Amino acid sequence: MSAVDKGVSYEQNGVSTILADNAVPIRLFGQHFTNQTVVRFVRDVKSRGADCDDMDATDAHPVSHIGPNGASAIIEISLSINQSEEFFFICVRENNTERRRKSYNVSWVVDMPWVHQGSDPWITIKVYERMLPLWLNIVFIVFLLLLSGLFAGLTLGLLALDRTDLKILANTGSEKERMYAKTILPLRTQGNYLLCSLVLGNVLINSSLTILLDDLTTGLLAVTFSTIGIVIFGEIIPQAFCSRHGLAIGAKTILITRLIMILTFPLSYVISVILDKVLGEEIGIVYNREKLKELVKITIEHNDLEADEVNIISGALELKKKTVEHIMTRLEDTFMLPLDGELDFETLNEIRKQGYSRIPIYDGERRNIVTILFTKDLMFVDPDDKIPLKTLAQFYNNPCYYVFSDTTLDIVFKEFKECNILKCHCFPTVKFTLKNVSAQKGHMAFVQKINTSCNERDPYCETTGLVTLEDVIEELIQAEIVDETDMWTDNRNKKRTKQHHTKDFSKFVEIRNSQKTIYISPQLALAAFQYLSTGVEPFRTAHISEGVLHRILKKNVLFKIRGTKDLKPCFLYESGKATDSFTLILEGRVEVNVGKEGLQYEAGPFSYFAVPALMLNEDTNFTPDYSVKATGDVVILRIRRPLYQAAVQATIMERSKKDENGKSIPHDSYIEKQIEDVLGKLEPEFSAETAGKILSELESSDDSVSSKAQSTTSTEA
Question: Are 362 and 370 in contact (CB under 8 A)?
Fold first, then answer.
C-alpha cells in the first residue's frame, strides 16, 4: 500500500497515517484485482484470511485504475474516528461473483465473503485528528504571520538605525525621540547578536507558518497561500512600515525583541561572536568634513536651517582645507604709508577715506614693512603740525606679526583668538628698528613666503600680503563683511561698495590753494563750509547745494585785514552806508557799534553780518544800523549779492536737470559747464585785482570817517 497523492505519511515501521475525515487516494498492491473488487476497513485485529463479515467496518470502497494483470488498484478513502487516533485494517471481497456446479450444469451469482488481510504494518492505516481545531489553527497562522512581519520589519528597522544617529537622537531629539533612542541603544550596540536573533526568530516562525499552511491546504494552493502570506504580509508591508517608523516600533516592541534574543541565545550569540571576530566591531557611520558638509547641503530642504547657517557650517568645515594665501590681501592692493611721510591734512584725509583701522608703514620698498599705524593713534595729531610719520611710529612702537602663506585658516583663527600671531620663524630685514617692542597681540598679520626663485642667493622670506581676523571670519561665514567705512567689498577683486558715501575733504585743500589773496588751512575751510551750510539760512542746502557752495568758496572771497595802524580804524561795515556784501569772521576779533546809542560788543570767529544784503533785489541795497571795525588782524569771508544770486541760479539749474530715470546728473558734464558759465560771468568782478581793491578800501579808511563817526556820536549824546 502506498500514497497516490499528498495526504499520506508513513511511520518508521511502515504504518500509513492519514488525517481523519480527509479524502485520500491510496494505491493497493496484490493479485487478482478486478472491477468487482471492493475494500472496507475494520478496527479488529485478525489473521490474514479470517472472516470479517460480522465485524464493525466502514463503508465499502470500490477500486479503480486497476493495473496490469490485476496487480494494483486505487481506492479513495475518508475515515472517521472516535478517539484521537485509531488503527484500521483492510478487508477485501469480490461482488457479483458467478458460481457454477458442474454436476448439475447450473450457475448463479453470489457475493464473496469479506476476507481480513491481516495486521502487517504495511497494510495497516493509522488515522489521527488535528491537535488543534480548524479555527484555532487559523488563529495561530494569523498570529505567526504577524510575528513574521514584526521580526522582518525589526530586522530592517533596527539595523537601519545607525549607532551614531541613535546617540544624536538621544541627546538632541524631541522628548519622544530621546526616550525611544535611549531604549533601543543598548540593544543596537550588540548589532550582530541582535541581527542573528531576529533572523533566527523570523526563520523559525516562517517554517512553522509553512507547516500549518501545509496542513490546511495541499499542492499548488498551499504554495500560493504561503508565498502570498509570507512575502506580502510578512516581509514587504512590515519592512516598508518599519523603514520609516523603525524608531517608534522598535522601542515599543523592545520586550518581544529581548524575549527572542533570550530564546535564541544558544545559537545566535555564538554566531554573533564569530561575526564580531571576523568583521570587527561596529562603530556606526563616521562623517568626515566632505561628507558632513554634503549632508547639510542635501538635507537643507527638509531641515530648519537657514541658508546663512548652512554657509557658516560649510565655511567652518573648510577652514582646515584653506590656507592664508587663498584669502590674503595682496601687498600691491594694500593701502600703506611710507615711513618718511608727513601727517598733514592730505595724508589724514586719505587715511579717513580708506576707512582702515590699521595701516602698514614701509621703509623704502613696500615689502619692507617696519610697523603698523593705528588710526586711534591719530586722535591727538594736528594736521597743521605736519608731524613726521617716523616720529609717531617710534613713539607707539606697534609691532608687526607674521604667518607663513601655507598656514591653514583654522590655525590662524585660533591664533587670532588667543593672540599668538607673534610666533613666527623669520622676519624681513629692515633699516628701521622698533625698540622695546611690547608683547601686544593683534588681529592682523603679514603673510610671508619662502622665496626660492633666485638661484644666485639663498632662500629668503618675503612679505606677499596681509590677513586679518575679518578675512578669516568672512571665510567662516561665507560672506563679505561690509561696514560703514569700507570702500571695497573684496580687496582682491576690487569690488567697490554700493553704499559708500564717505566725503572727500581733499577739496578743501583746493579751496586753500585757489585763493590768490590769502591761504587758510583746510580745517578752517572745512569748518567755514560746514557752518555756512548748516548755520546760516541763505547758504543752507534748501537754497544752495553743497557743490555750488564749494565752488563759491573757491572764488576770491577770503580776505585778511591787518590790524589798525596809527589809530586808524578799518571798518568792515559803517552805519548808514549801503552794502551788498555778506561777511563771515574766520579769524580775529571785531568791534561792533550798534544803534544810535552806540552800544559796543566784540565779535569773534564765525560771527556773520549783513545777511539781508544777499536776499534783497538788485536795485535795493542793505543799509546796516551798526558799524563793524577790525581790532586786530582779521580773516574774513565776504560774498557779494551778485555771486550769491549766481549761486542760487546754478543750484536751480543743477536740480532741474534730471536723467531718464528721474535721478540728478552728477556735478560734471553738462551741469558743470552751465554752472561754470553762470559763475564765470562774475569772474572779472571777483578777480584778484578786484579783491585787492576791496582789501585796499577796507584798510584805507581815513580819519574823516572816524572823526565824523565820533562827532555824530557826540551830537546824538
Answer: yes
pLDDT tens digits for range 633-669: 888 999 988 888 888 888 888 777 654 455 555 544 5
Number of separate domains in the chain: 5
Q: Do residues 600 and 619 share a domain?
A: yes
Rounded CA separation 36/116 (Å) = 17
342: left (phi over 0), alpha (psi -120 to 50) or beta: beta
Look at residue 699 and tell me whether its pLDDT is greater than 60: no
Mean pLDDT of 1-30: 77
Burial 632-654 (b: 16+ CB within 10 A, else e): eebbbbbbbbebbbbbbebbebb
Which of 128, 145, 172 is the C-terminal boundary of a domain? Answer: 128
Q: Which residues pair with 571 in a beta bridge?
A: 629
Q: Contact 228/136 with Cβ under 8 angstroms?
A: no
| Residues 6+ away with beta carbon under 8 Å from 453 | none
Distance, in Å, from the CA atom of 540 to the CA atom of 644, rounded to the nearest integer, reads 12
Residues 6+ apart with CB under 8 A from 587: 524, 605, 633, 634, 635
CA distance 319 to 410: 5
- CA geometry: angle at 529 spanning 527 and 533, to 5°? 120
Spatial distance between the Cα atoms of 229 and 416, rounded to a whole number of angstroms: 67
Tell me whether residue 284 is in a domain.
no
Q: What are phi and psi of 673, to 5 degrees?
A: -65, -45
- pTM of the full predicted structure? 0.55
| pLDDT score for 605 | 92
Does 541 share its domain with 689? yes
The neighbour count for residue 351, using CB atoms within 10 Å, is 17
Q: Is residue 605 a part of any domain in this protein?
A: yes
User: What secondary structure does DSSP assign to 491-534, as a single string?
Assistant: TTTTEEPTT-----TTHHHHHHHH-SS----HHHHHHHHHHHHH
Residues 258 and 303 in one domain: no
- Residues 165 and 193 placed together within one structural domain of the fold: yes
Q: What is the CATH number of the domain that holds 648?
A: 2.60.120.10
| Structural domain boundaries, residue 298 | 289-318
Asked if residue 491 is part of any domain, the answer here is yes
The answer to whether position 579 is within a domain reads yes
Q: Checking DSSP bridges between strand 97-101 and strand 61-62, what pairing results, if any?
A: unpaired
Locus of grid cell 615689502: 367
Handedness of CA 104, 107, 108, 109 (dihedral sign): positive
Query: How far is the C-alpha of 125 from the C-alpha of 78, rounded, in Å?
Result: 11
